[in-house]
Inverse folding.
């Protein structure tokens, strides 16, 4: 096994002008959006990425078959043709983050990508009822269109900058003359957050023209909010109980 | 000293169709099973494995002689011939886990292994009276026989997948066209667990036809349960005392 | 991306006899001094340094553009000509600290530097009203002038020696026949400390003859002290309240 | 700077049959013994060892001069000629421990060393009034003489084996046909422990015939015991006070 391996899965050439990254991260916001799109667009898996920098851990499939942790590239051959970078893990080491980001960009170049969207969450540590979508770009010229599409820019959010693949792809893609936009859904960060994902998908659709059925994502968001609502109520009830008990 | 060293200890060629891995891990379940088999089958040590990726620590022998931390391969030249991978430590670094797993598979290829059993524990965090044996395989075709032998498959157990050598050998062996089955004994994870080991040995015997005297493992399990019984009783007594004291 | 990259930004040759290092660290003392000097002297950025050893994180600019974490070299072409080493981060790994320090010294040699000042904070864990400036040098001959300039030498301060770039540049520069002086402003270490920075700037000015307007640094120090004064008062008030409440 | 550098400091050839290692560790027991011997025997420094694997930290000298963290080899050209390995730090990384141990053995081979004594502490977590000296060897033949000299062997002490340079030199030296004996002074592990060092020196003197004035070590041990005695008394007084207060 090499330090990083990209296995291309089909023989005919694959082309995609756009790459959408949705690796695991805060609130799994990027992952939720990218996997929703892959499902709705019936995108085809065209590559698997393996690395010593992923955690030394195998993933169990529904059939009881274990496989190496990996990331994957899917392709939707529509107009526009879109590649998706999704998977199990980000790097387990600091240097691995840089090396994997370069490998992802090698794959993007191989596909002829000229624009990258990196999707993630921006964890604020408390429940958010109307989550904003924060953005960053790799060239100032890209900003107006992103604002028109509904995202906000604030150099202090997230406070320390953007960690991991979403950040590094944004900055390193400039070296390869690719445009890149990062979209971050505001989220508590405690749970997988389909509401934040829905907000990110709104902006992404406006920017790319991709239209998909959103009912599944909306259903998951409604379910999650119902669960949170009950938890919050039972918290309040517990608080009332304590008061009664003390009183 | 090289990054990873395999020292073969005998000159005549060694052959084994099966490799059983029982390195240290949760509840030392795999280690207990593999070492029990090595003892009962009087398997011969045929290789030692040294690595910079093991902790920088030496092991004290009963004679006061210190030696490097190492893993070892034993050989039982019966029908079937079986190799055993056991030892002091797993890797101390994430990347080392991958590199060591590849070295173990190099050794397995050298022995002509076509099937690997990786043994471990599945820690559930509470005492288990009738521990199940969970399994995962590297090809779906292997599953029915493993179920017949008494193990269960559940893609959510262990929840995050399988960590370390037991997991990586399972997944990486597929690249070398070896079959692999992982057997995990359900255990609290707090103590070395011969009862969980006994369960794993049941399934392994059914799968491989290996029959050994099990009295030593059963005795250890009974002793351990007696100790736990006393601890639990004394806990209850302490609880009663506290109640009395408060009352 | 290479392990460490230095990108020189201008074509004409750059020369500087002195290099002043002010990377982030305790109380951001070195950073405050170096950035103040860069601003007041209108120094020009002449190099950017990128590395896998920086945290895998991108920095957001005021225009919404993200860029890789990096360090930078600025040049003031006065008499004397001075280079400044400032930036976002120190190394995220132990070995990276050594490798980056060597890269900084490669850059210093490229500029013809013969003397280095490394600036930092010495965290004492409590508020300091009249912060001292501690120093260390790489050759004993340098010490008298530094004492005359107002810094103190104490082999037990900081107790464990000097960590990171400020320390390694001091020691490694001797191998390249460069003189080096480390100046550390005594600071609580809890907050960015412009008062400690002001003390370090005093000593640095005396040593180098650099004279700059200091009002901005003084204003920030006064503001910080006012904030701390209010925090301390409100602490006392809170203490009084508690007493009243209990009493 | 290379990963590991050994700088030999004198031109004429150096020879030593014995190497005594006393790097920093638990209770600084080995360091205290080795540095005491270096001082009493007026041993000469003949080598300095630098490494990226040491912490990225410089050490302050009494003259205000900072230098890289390093280990050192001293030579006593008596009968027998003895080398001493002492210094500032052990490795900061697991792999570095192995690589540095190999470098120390390269240096030992260069000196013609045929026997190594590694000195350390065995931390037991409570005050010890009559500290034992525990030992381990790299060949069983070495054990009787070490027992005669007053050390004990117990495969369960220290429980997990021997960590760091003292352990690795013991095990790795066998590969170079050197004899090695590890001596570990029983110590609380909380403080530098000259009493434990004195016990180790007793055994080492009996084994090597090295006789030195021990008054300085004894004085430090007496001082330390007086300090601990006072601390313990004041603890008891505090306890009495609390009792009085509660009563």
């Amino acid at each position: 096994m090499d330090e990083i391996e990209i296995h291309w899965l089909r023989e005919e050439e694959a082309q995609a002008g756009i790459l959408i990254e949705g690796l695991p991260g805060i609130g799994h916001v990027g992952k939720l959006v990218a996997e929703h799109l892959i499902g709705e667009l019936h995108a085809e898996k065209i590559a698997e990425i393996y690395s010593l920098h992923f955690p030394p851990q195998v993933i169990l499939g529904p059939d009881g078959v274990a496989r190496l942790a990996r990331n994957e590239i899917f392709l939707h051959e529509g107009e526009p043709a879109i590649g998706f970078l999704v998977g199990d893990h980000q790097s387990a080491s600091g240097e691995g983050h840089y090396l994997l980001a370069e490998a992802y960009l090698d794959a993007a170049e191989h596909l002829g990508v000229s624009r990258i969207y990196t999707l993630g969450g921006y964890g604020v540590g408390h429940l958010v009822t109307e989550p904003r979508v924060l953005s960053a770009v790799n060239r100032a010229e890209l900003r107006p269109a992103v604002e028109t599409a509904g995202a906000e820019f604030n150099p202090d959010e997230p406070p320390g900058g953007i960690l991991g693949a979403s950040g590094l792809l944004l900055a390193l893609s400039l070296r390869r003359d690719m445009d890149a936009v990062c979209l971050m859904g505001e989220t508590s960060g405690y749970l997988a957050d389909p509401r934040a994902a829905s907000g990110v998908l709104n902006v992404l659709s406006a920017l790319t023209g991709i239209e998909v059925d959103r009912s599944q994502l909306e259903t998951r968001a409604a379910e999650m909010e119902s669960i949170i609502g009950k938890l919050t109520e039972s918290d309040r009830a517990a608080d009332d109980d304590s008061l009664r008990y003390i009183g």
Q: What stands out?
A: Chains D and A do not touch (no CB pair under 8 Å). Residues 241-247 of chain D have pLDDT under 50 and may be disordered. Residues 4-213 of chain D form a domain with the Rossmann fold fold (CATH 3.40.50.10900).
